[in-house]
Each structure stands twice: as C-alpha cells, then as structure tokens.
Design brief:
Chain A is of the alpha/beta class. Chain A has helices at 55-62, 85-95, 111-116, 126-139, 155-167, 185-200, 213-216, 242-247, and strands at residues 2-3, 13-24, 27-39, 44-48, 70-75, 78-79, 96-99, 173-177, 205-209, 221-226, 229-233, 239-241. Chain B has two domains: 4-44 and 250-378, no CATH class; 60-230, no CATH class. The chains are: A alpha/beta, B alpha+beta.
Chain lengths: 248, 379
C-alpha cells in the first residue's frame, strides 16, 4: 500500500507535512512542500521527476541523512527526525541500506572488506561477519570477486558489491539513488533484477530514485515529484496530485 | 582491533606522505632525545647532589678563594658532621681540547663526605700515601686509556707549568649519572707548588647530620663569616651544581626553546598532512557515516591515524637516539654521562603522542562534523 494523501495509518513509512528548505545566497528555496507519504512494508516505490525536484532530498530524509525543515518522518513507528546524531547513526545501521549512483566503495578495501564495513559496528564475531558477508556477496553473484579491489571490478560488479554492502546488515529499507545511472543497459538490468528480487523474495521496502522510465517500471508504484509535491500514477494512467487524490 | 585494518589501509594509501610525516616525527624525536641526553649530561651533578650536603663558597664569586682555616671553624657549628674542601685546578692534558675537570681535595675528609665513591682499599691507600697521586673517573680511562700506575702530566692554566700525577685509583659509582670526567689529586701537592693563593681553598662541602637542618646550618655558616674579608655564600649542593652547570648558559632555556620550535613545526607538518588526508576522503567518510559510523567513531579513526604516525615515527626517533647514545660520548669526555634516561624516553613518547593528538584534532573534528548530504554531493 502506497498513499500520498496523508490518510494512511500504521504504515512502515509515514511522512507528514514534510517541508524542506535550502538557503542559497540568502535566497530561500522550497524543495519539498507539505509532502505526505505512506508506504507499507515490502513495497517497491520509484520516485521520478526533473532534476532539482527533490527526489534525492526525499530519499535522504527517509534515510535520516538530512533533517526536515518541518513535518515528520516516522519509520516503523519511530520519529527519526527527532533522533540525535548518535542514535540516528545506530538507527541507520540497523534499518537502512543505501545504494548510490557512483557505488561509493572505499577504494583501498576489497569487495569483501567494503561489504563488511557496516558489520564492524555490530557485536558479531569475525566468523559471523564472514558468514554474513559471503552470503550477501553470493546473493549478488560476486562470490568469485570478493577479494578484488574496486579498481579491479567493472561498473556493474562495483554496484553489485555496493548492493551487498547495503543488504549485509539485513536492513528493512533499501534506498537506491539512481543505481543504474552510471551503467550500460545490460549491467543496469542486472542491478534492477537484484533490487526487484530483494523486494519480492526478501520483502525489503525499496525506494528507487531514477530518471529512467524503464527502471521505474520495475517498481510496484511510481511517484512523480514536481515542485516539491508528490503525484501518484496508478497503472498507466495520469499522475494525480496529493490534493486531487484526496478529493477522489 | 577490528578497526586497525581500516586505520592501516588509510595510512598506506599515500605511502610517501605517511612516510614523510612519520619521518618528521622521527627527526624531531631524535633531536629531542639528543637534547635531553645533553641536558642530563650537563646537569648530572645537579641530579645526584646529596640532600644532606651544603656547599660554602666565596660570597663574591665562585672563582674567589676561602681561607683553609674555615674548615675547623665550620666543623664546630652544631649539626655539622664533616667539612671537606676542594680547589679548582683547571689543568689540561697535552692540548686544551683535552680539558676535563680536575681539582685538589682533602682526601680523608672528602671520602667521609662522599661515601658513594668506591675504590679498592689498596688503591685508596696508595693514593693517600703518594703526594703526587691522583684518582680518575672511568670516562678518563675510556677517553685517554689511562690506567693505575700511569704518570699523567697536566698543563696548569691558573698555576702555570707542567704538573705530574700518578694514577693511583679509578673510582666506581653506583648510579651511572654520577659518572663524570674528572681527576682528583691531593691538596698538599697543590699547596706545595703554587706560588699564590696559598692557604686558601676553592669551596667547602659540608655534610650535615640531618637534611632538615641544612638551611639552619647554612645560615649559621654565613653568619659566622659575615663582615670578614672572606664572606661566604652557603647553598645546597644541588643549587651549587646548577650554578656550575649554568656557567656555560641556561641549558634548560636553550633546550626548551629548540624543543618548542621543533614541536611547533611538527604540529604544522602533521596537521597539514592530516587535513589533506581527511579532505581527500570526504566522500568515503560520508559513506562510512551513511552506513552507521557515528561522529565519535569517525573522529576516533582519524585521531588514531594521527596518533599511530606519531607513535611509530616518534618511537623510531627515540630508539635511534637511544642507539646513538649507547655508542658513547661523542665529545670524547666533555659529556661523560651521555645516556638517554628511561624517563626522558617516556617523556619523548608522551610529547610525540600529544603532538599527534593536537595535530590530528582539527582535521578529526572536521571529519566528525562532516554533513553527509553535503559531502556526498561533492563526490
């Protein structure tokens, strides 16, 4: 279930009246305005929209990387916009997996060591960490390249390692910021297959930011961001604004 | 320990920069080790001064003499156990560059006041029995290969001419820092040959029965000789040794000045290196925060890198300094106690770590305060 009218109740993700403003050169820029969103567990939501429409900002707010100017972001019943830095970091480690467009692997660490990074924050033993890392790498089909450095991997392989890093701690939510934006179609499809599988088989709640309509079609729901508000497209119909949706 | 690998790989990513930064610690701490060794060598007399000994000298100047008759008068003062004296001779062996301290002493009383010096009894007796006898310290044996039985000529600088001495004993001491380059000979030999300052001595060393009474005794001695042609200034042996050492300059200030400049430079070099290292890794640090590393853990990781460079570089510098000093006094006897003490080694290590901590703190704070969103935008 995905709703943009602010009428949902008890969803995994509950966003209410979310505003985000930036100040640039003394000028106030409204990126998100009174945004509402409810997303149930296991949903695969794609955000589309022109550059600067606030897609990445929304993703960052859901992931606790940024704080709202007003409104609330509640995940699994927890108001994350009220969490202090230390608790927020721990919360992120437990609940969120990030996948970036540029992979953002640490170049001096092997694929194995990159994937292990989030587990260093846990109390798992070395053997337990190894088990989790090998499992994640196997899931993304990178078991045979686990001891390679990022520079020794192709773009698609790097992104698969980044996905393994995102899922190794078994997060509830996966936030994917244009994960195929830097890949060719074939590699991009492989990455999308993995993400779809994570949503369907492992019930991960996935948020995907993309400019690519083909990639967006993998999602169960496509939401369009325009001028700081969300529009929902049901099946292949037109996008409906929050207000219109509420009126219906 | 699970983060050690992270710290090490970050240090290894720019090997030359890490090596140069560690190298600056190495050079600075090597210099620190040598400076502390020189300071210790020059001040060794100060460190081993006895708490129950006070020194009486001429109030005008250390180079002005005191009458020998004062010895008995000082002995009469309550709480005085013994009073001995010495006179600076100022001779050199063959060439001026071979100078080492040498002075005339009153053997029997000197031994009672300085029981820490040890000799084979037979050698001591031979020294006492020979008016031209002398006692030398082990560094002179190393430096000039003197041995018991040798005849050693010294050229006088205060009392001109060649003065010959027979080596009768080599003293031994319990504590290495008491070891200095010196030669003692019998006062009667000096008194017999010198043409002027007869009946005088350079200074008295007074042993008191209780260190607590040292101040009172010193005051009584100075009162006793007040308004005489030879007024006295009595001070603790420590103060006396310090004023002796300071004749060549304020060593402590000199070392402090050099050390401060070196450490300040070290802070700039290391701080700059760490700042560059953090700036280069802005995106990576943001990713680490994204996956759950807290601000404090990021700060700790950067600080750990800086501290590790300081510990390895500084430790290596101190070890090198230690090895250098183990090779012995490079001046050939001017710095007889040329030894890097354990406490100075530890102090060096603490200073290196402090410099590493201070230098790493600002970049580490920068890394800690990094806003994930801003940093990821720069990647």
């Amino acid at each position: 279930m995905v709703r943009v009218d602010g009428k949902g109740n008890g969803s995994l993700v509950e966003i209410r009246d979310l505003d985000k403003k930036y100040y640039r050169g003394g000028e106030e820029i409204d990126v998100l305005r009174g945004l509402n969103l409810d997303v149930a567990k296991g949903e695969f939501v794609a955000f589309m929209g022109p550059s600067g429409s606030g897609k990445t900002t929304l993703l960052n707010l859901i992931g606790g990387l940024d704080s709202p100017s007003s409104g609330s972001v509640r995940i699994a019943g927890e108001e994350i916009s009220a969490l202090k830095s230390r608790k927020l970091a721990a919360w992120r480690a437990r609940h969120i997996g990030f996948i970036f467009q540029m992979y953002n692997l640490i170049p001096v660490l092997t694929a194995y060591q990159n994937v292990q990074l989030p587990l260093l924050l846990t109390k798992l033993s070395k053997a337990e960490r190894r088990k989790h890392v090998e499992g994640a790498l196997e899931l993304v089909g990178l078991s045979d390249r686990m001891h390679h450095y990022p520079r020794q991997l192709s773009g698609g392989q790097e992104q698969r390692a980044a996905i393994a890093r995102a899922i190794v701690a078994d997060p509830t939510i996966l936030l994917c910021d244009e994960p195929t934006g830097d890949l060719d179609r074939a590699s991009g499809d492989e990455i999308l297959n993995i993400i779809s599988r994570l949503s369907k088989e492992f019930e991960k709640t996935v948020f995907l930011v993309t400019h690519d309509p083909v990639a967006a079609k993998r999602a169960s729901t496509i939401l369009h961001l325009d001028k700081g508000t969300l529009l929902e497209r049901t099946s292949d119909g037109p996008f409906v604004s929050q207000g219109e949706d509420a009126a219906r | 320990m699970k983060y050690l690998h992270l710290i090490l790989v970050n240090l290894k990513r720019k090997k030359i920069r890490t090596a140069l930064t560690a190298g600056s610690f190495l050079a600075a701490l090597f210099l620190f080790g040598l400076l502390m060794t020189i300071k210790t060598a020059l001040g060794s007399g100060v460190d081993v001064a006895g708490a129950n000994r006070i020194v009486v000298r001429n109030r005008v100047s250390l180079i002005m003499p005191l009458p020998i008759a004062y010895q008995e008068q000082i002995r009469q003062i309550p709480h005085v156990e013994e009073a001995t004296f010495a006179t600076w001779f100022g001779g050199y062996y063959q060439e001026m560059k071979n100078f080492f301290p040498n002075y005339a002493i009153d053997p029997e009383t000197y031994r009672r006041v300085y029981p820490e010096y040890r000799f084979p009894e037979a050698d001591w007796k031979a020294f006492v029995a020979d008016r031209q006898g002398c006692i030398i310290s082990p560094p002179l044996v190393d430096r000039f290969k003197f041995k018991v039985g040798d005849r050693v000529p010294l050229e006088g600088t205060i009392w001109a001419g060649t003065w010959e001495f027979n080596v009768r004993a080599v003293y031994d001491v319990e504590r290495r820092e008491m070891m200095t380059s010196e030669l003692w000979f019998q006062y009667p030999y000096l008194e017999e040959r010198r043409p002027f300052f007869k009946g005088t001595v350079g200074w008295y060393v007074v042993k008191v029965d209780d260190p607590a009474s040292a101040v009172t005794v010193a005051q009584k001695i100075d009162d006793r000789f007040a308004n005489s042609p030879y007024e006295t200034k009595t001070e603790t042996e420590k103060a006396f040794a310090a004023s002796f050492a300071n004749q060549i300059g304020n060593i402590r200030l000199l070392i402090l000045s050099i050390g401060s400049v070196v450490f300040f430079t070290l802070l700039l070099v290391t701080g700059n290196s760490m700042a560059i290292a953090v700036r280069e890794r802005t995106g990576e640090l943001a990713v680490m925060k994204t996956v759950g590393f807290t601000d404090i853990s990021i700060l700790s990781l950067v600080m750990a890198e800086s501290l590790l460079i300081a510990a390895v570089g500084g430790g290596a510098g101190l070890v090198l300094a230690k090895l250098f000093t183990l090779a012995g006094d490079p001046t050939g006897g001017m710095l007889a106690y040329f030894y890097l003490r354990g406490e100075d080694f530890a102090l060096g290590l603490v200073l290196a770590l402090a410099a590493g901590a201070v230098a790493g703190f600002v970049p580490a704070m920068g890394a800690m305060r990094l806003k994930i969103v801003n940093a990821l935008r720069r990647v």
